[in-house]
Amino acid sequence: MSADSQTAADFRVKYSRRIDGDGREQKHSEVEMLDDEEQHPDVGLQAAVELNTQKKISAVKRRCFRAFGVNLGLLYLLILAGITTRCILVTLEKQQLQEEVKELKDKMEEKCREGWMRFGCSCYFKSTERKTWSESRRDCQDKGADLVMINSKEEQEFINELNMRGESWIGLERYSQKHEWKWVDGSLLTEMFWAPGKQSDSLVYYAACCDSDGRWTQSYDPESKTFICEK
Q: Which residue range or ranges hold the C-type lectin domain (predicted)?
């Protein structure tokens, strides 16, 4: 498009008619300059659309930043709660451990009653009376104890030294159904010190300690022996 035609497009011509006093018709024309929006109506619409788009983008950005801030705050609170919970658990575990150590220390320092001997954390009583296995266990229970349970080589050596004269009942028995040897608390054997050839398949046996070699033997309940209690 030429410059002349472009310039012509920027103006608007208005025509008017009127009758003068002599009755003659006169024609007049006026030229008006058009502004940009009137010349190009699409320009104003495009500007409005762009402005509205910018407002929407700004609103979306604000919402995104707000959501990010909220999520970051929640994450911080969760981390803080986790750290606090862990600190509480560690404190409780430490207190429990200290109490257990103190209880163990008090137990080790506790004196055994007269006639009893200490080994490790337990007190032991060696009877002079001879009774059956069942009677021996009842006697120990009346004393607030039970027949001795031997769970280590060191304890076995101590019991052997404690019982140098003959055999004494210990808290070990075998049940006829499964032929399993169990201690009086129901636990299975972790250490075994049987004398060679002293384990048979008979229905019910009770264990005694110790023979001349410091080993366990087994006998029927009706037999009478001394016994060793542990508490």
A: 119-230
Cβ atoms of 227 and 141 within 8 Å: the answer is no
Give the distance from CA 224 to its chain's centroid: 53
Q: Which residues contact 192 (CB under 8 A, 6 or more apart)?
A: 216
- The average confidence (pLDDT) of the chain is 78
pTM of this structure: 0.54
Question: 1: which 2 tokens?
Answer: 């498009």
User: What pLDDT score does 22 carry?
Assistant: 60
DSSP annotation string for the chain:
--HHHHHHTTEEEEEEEEE-TTS-EEEEEEEEE--HHHH-HHHHHHHHHHHHHHHHHHHHHHHHHHHHHHHHHHHHHHHHHHHHHHHHHHHHHHHHHHHHHHHHHHHHHSPPPTT-EEETTEEEEE-SS-B-HHHHHHHHHHTT-EE----SHHHHHHHHHHT-SS-EEEEEEE-TTT--EEETTSPBPSS--BPTT-----S-EEEEE--TTS-EEEE-TTS-BEEEEE-
